[in-house]
Write a structure and sequence with these properties.
mainly alpha
């Protein structure tokens, strides 16, 4: 169910460095992502190498997913819900959306961890239970929205 209780400072530093590197790579490619929203042909006309950009971002996302799952375990809905919610709040410009999703996901997970530690204190509820409950409600809300800003 996942946990944020990690006693190894080496692993914490590794996850921090990896997440910052992933953020920098994603921000570097954010103009290309904005162009790719128009479609591959239009983005290619703007000088974007769509196949290369897609491969780089796919590998980056895969490495970040593996890094976060190895450190925190399976914590549902954070990576699925937060970017969609942030798109509704911040808009579809990837320069803003990437940063807001990064900070929003970290804030949401921290909030869920605090709730999980307080609900049945002195025991600790797995944080995946809290993210699943909150994420499920938000997921149904997002799916129920008629119009999502693009």
């Amino acid at each position: 169910m996942g946990s944020l209780d990690e006693p190894s400072p080496v692993l914490i530093r590794l996850v921090l460095a990896g997440s910052i590197a992933g953020l920098v790579i994603a921000l570097y490619h954010s103009p290309a992502l904005n162009a790719m929203v128009l479609g591959d042909d239009e983005a290619a006309l703007l000088g974007i190498h769509t196949a290369r950009t897609r491969k780089i971002l796919f590998v980056t996302a895969s490495l970040l997913t593996g890094l976060s799952v190895s450190a925190g375990g399976i914590i549902m809905f954070v990576g699925l819900i937060v970017p969609h919610f942030m798109r509704m709040v911040a808009g579809s410009d990837h320069r803003i959306l990437i940063i807001s999703s990064f900070l929003g996901g970290a804030s949401f997970l921290t909030f869920c961890d605090i709730v999980a530690r307080m609900v049945i204190a002195p025991l600790e509820l797995p944080v995946g239970v809290i993210t699943g409950i909150i994420g499920g409600v938000v997921f149904i809300y997002v799916l129920g929205k008629k119009k999502v800003a693009l």
